[in-house]
Amino acid sequence: MSHELMSLPYSMDALEPHISKETLEYHYGKHHQTYVNTLNGLVEGTPDADLSLEALIKKASGKLFNQAAQVWNHNFYWQSLSPNGGGDPEGELKAAIEKEWGSVDAFRKEFTEKTIANFASGWGWLVKKSDGSLAIVETDDAETPLTDDSVTPLLTCDIWEHAYYIDYRNARPKYMEAFWKLVNWDFAAKNFAG
């Protein structure tokens, strides 16, 4: 099977003014597309060619893992954003966040601090553990919680520089402020319930 660049669930300018159309043209249109193209080149004509993205990630290493995981991580990231996002979660997800952190604001503060502090290029994740509790996980480079069967990813924030440099230069904290205005709590809630 050939892997394809996922269709964005919104138009390229839908996240403005928080994330620009230009950023999406580069981040989605060039970076994400390159991961897909490179992945297809690596698996073409091999026994891995018929594996799903998730199956590839769970068995691959090195360059193949990096390309497959980056495709999956980006697919997840685009769904973690919404032009109608922001605000606070509702229902069971909100209750789980409040149980773990005391309030949504306290969660947002800790997630922001940990994500900003990640020295590497990488990802900030909200995950549900196998016991139903929540945790914040930081991964570097292409690492993904998908490789850990004891957690379920709920949402992610991409902190590679290409995610924010056009709009915010080196101001990662400003990008994080924008992320919270776009965060797709409905997507996170579906993952939490799933």
From TrEMBL:
Database matches in InterPro entries: Mn/Fe_SOD, Mn/Fe_SOD_BS, Mn/Fe_SOD_C, Mn/Fe_SOD_N, Mn/Fe_SOD_N_sf, SOD_C_sf
Keyword annotations of the record: Metal-binding, Oxidoreductase
Molecular function terms from GO: superoxide dismutase activity
The name this protein goes by in its record: Superoxide dismutase
Annotated ranges, domain Manganese/iron superoxide dismutase C-terminal: 89-190
Record PROSITE patterns: SOD_MN
Native source organism of the sequence: Natronospira proteinivora
Reaction catalysed by this enzyme: 2 superoxide + 2 H(+) = H2O2 + O2
The protein's role, per its UniProt record: Destroys radicals which are normally produced within the cells and which are toxic to biological systems.
Similarity comment text for this entry: Belongs to the iron/manganese superoxide dismutase family.
EC number: 1.15.1.1
